[in-house]
Write a structure and sequence with these properties.
159 residues; globular; 4-stranded antiparallel beta sheet
Length: 159
């Protein structure tokens, strides 16, 4: 990795699975702009992990978390083309939502969160061209049950 600037991002995310589909949001800004991501995000002051999870899922999907189970913490590095490196630390929860159906309504972008809305996506359709590293690392973990010692995404293209 050639970049000198390293930023750390800590986020809390929800994995909501139904059949072969996973609940995703579409990012509208940041290094994962234009890609699918898990609902979730950064903690606010004096907020627990579960409180962050519930608030972020509500903001990005319009749905309440009605059941959550802590799953795993993953971390990985994303090098944004000759700009900076993000060390992304992601705490993942398995969740159920209040409307755990395939017709979850899209959320209108309110200008506050970084989501254009939510959508159910078949896990077979998710790849490096359309998904954030949060999704890619989650899928690797769900498939193998193992945590990668070091995952690095070099020359990450912001869409």
């Amino acid at each position: 990795m050639k970049s000198e600037k390293i930023k750390t991002h800590f986020g809390v995310y929800g994995i909501c699975l139904q059949n072969s589909n996973i609940l995703c949001i579409m990012k509208n800004r940041g290094p994962y702009k234009g890609r699918f991501d898990l609902p979730g995000g950064s903690q606010e002051y004096n907020e627990s992990l579960v409180e962050t999870l519930c608030r972020e899922v509500m903001e990005e999907t319009g749905q309440e978390v009605n059941n959550e189970k802590s799953l795993v913490t993953l971390d990985f590095f994303v090098e944004v083309k000759n700009n900076f490196i993000v060390h992304h630390i992601a705490v993942l929860f398995c969740i159920n939502i209040s409307n755990n159906q395939l017709n979850v309504p899209s959320v209108v972008n309110d200008g506050i969160n970084d989501s254009l809305g939510c959508i159910w996506v078949n896990v077979k359709e998710l790849n490096i061209e359309n998904s954030s590293p949060v999704i890619l690392e989650t899928l690797k973990y769900l498939k193998s049950g193992k945590i990668e010692k070091r995952s690095v995404y070099t020359d990450w293209k912001v869409l």
